[in-house]
Design goal:
Number of strands: 13
Strand content: 25-35%
Radius of gyration: 29 Å
Structural class: alpha+beta
Order of helices and strands: EHEHHEEEHEHEEHHEEEHEHEH
Number of helices: 10
Largest sheet: 13 strands, mixed
Helix content: 25-40%
Length: 359
């Protein structure tokens, strides 16, 4: 049995939120995701069309009465949901995969009823969670690798040791004498303006393979792609790189939070050197280097690994980007039933001879 979150589920959510799995790596690494119960209560009272939607499942047919929940975050466009949490984690029980599967199917139905066109998810490549999503008809359309540059230590100190026990590489100095770790501002890069959206759209269209375009493009209009939904918002800083002739060669999106910073770049494939220029500009904008910096690179964006490693980034995790298209229920207008005219046997009055004057 699966139902939308209600106040009767507060105790359940409080107990399960510590065993939940976060499926949005950017928000998880930057600490942007609210607690599951907090997100569920907020949308329960605000009734927002693009908040966090929570659905709770209980397996009455299981002897232990297993519980679980799924949360999806709606984008402002109203046509996209992103699966951001599932609970409990798959290692909790061998039957949890079934709970996840049922929840994912229910999410698709609920999204379709709200006119949502697509559900997206981001999972570690080759994980057990990816297998469950595939069984629920989610399809991998792209892979993305996240690189991390750890906080820069004070002079004379060594780098902190990462979880796997290896030592972070020391950041090198560039041949020109500028520290590549801190970056360098470029005069060709300026903050994005409202009239730059069309140029950014063309750049994204040029730099992105067609299958990814068809998946992430909201519709046939020239609206902002999903990758840069936040370009005109206060969620981060967006900058464009232009040539001397005014051609848009790249776009940089920077999101800085107390727990870290997130960089995302797109550039003209015919101008590969622009990636390093934008990356240096982004690092120079980050005044505080005491927090980790992350950069996401997709599989079709070749040549970035060497550029990142020169600036102290190391590979972290590789993620599979999945999508599922929903079936939207079409509401037909109710037709009013009109009784048909039927042929009936009627009595035809005869004409009296007296009335006609015949005698």
């Amino acid at each position: 049995m699966i139902t939308p979150f209600g106040l009767r589920h507060i105790g359940l959510m409080r107990g399960l939120q510590t065993a939940s799995v976060e499926l949005d790596p950017k928000s998880a690494l930057l600490g942007e995701l609210p607690r599951p119960l907090q997100a569920a209560l907020r949308n329960c009272f605000l009734k927002s069309s693009w908040g966090t939607f929570t659905y709770v499942a209980r397996a009455f047919d299981h002897p232990n009465y297993l519980w679980g929940f799924a949360q999806a975050r709606g984008e402002q466009s109203g046509r996209v949901w992103r699966v951001v949490r599932m609970a409990p984690h798959l290692d909790y029980s061998e039957d949890i995969a079934t709970i996840w599967y049922r929840l994912l199917l229910h999410l698709c139905i609920a999204a379709g009823e709200r006119q949502v066109q697509r559900l997206f998810a981001c999972l570690r490549e080759g994980s057990a969670a990816e297998d469950v999503f595939r069984q629920a008809s989610f399809v991998v359309y792209c892979h993305e690798r996240v690189f991390c540059r750890p906080p820069r230590p004070p002079d004379g100190e060594t780098w902190p040791r990462p979880p796997d026990g290896e030592t972070w590489p020391r950041l090198p100095d560039g041949e020109t004498g500028t520290d590549e770790a801190t970056g360098q501002l470029s005069p060709r890069i300026q903050p994005v303006q409202s009239d730059d959206c069309s140029d950014v759209w063309h750049l994204w269209y040029k730099a992105t393979p067609r299958p990814v375009l068809q998946t992430e493009e909201l519709d046939n209009s020239r609206g902002a792609p999903l990758l840069f939904d936040a370009l005109g918002s206060d969620a981060g800083q967006a900058h464009v790189l232009r040539s001397r002739g005014g051609q848009t060669l790249g776009c940089l999106h920077l999101l800085s939070r107390p727990r870290g910073a997130w960089l995302r770049l797109i550039w003209d494939p015919n101008a590969p050197g622009c990636a390093a220029e934008m990356l240096d500009h982004g690092l120079a904008l980050l005044a505080d280097h005491s927090q980790p910096t992350y950069c996401a690179v997709r599989e079709y964006e070749g040549g970035m690994q060497a550029v990142l490693e020169e600036r102290g980034f190391v590979p972290a995790d590789t993620y599979s980007l999945l999508v599922k298209h929903t079936t939207v229920r079409v509401r037909e207008p109710r037709r009013r039933l009109v009784p048909a005219f039927e042929k009936r046997v009627e009595i035809t009055p005869t004409v009296s001879r007296t009335e006609t004057g015949d005698h």
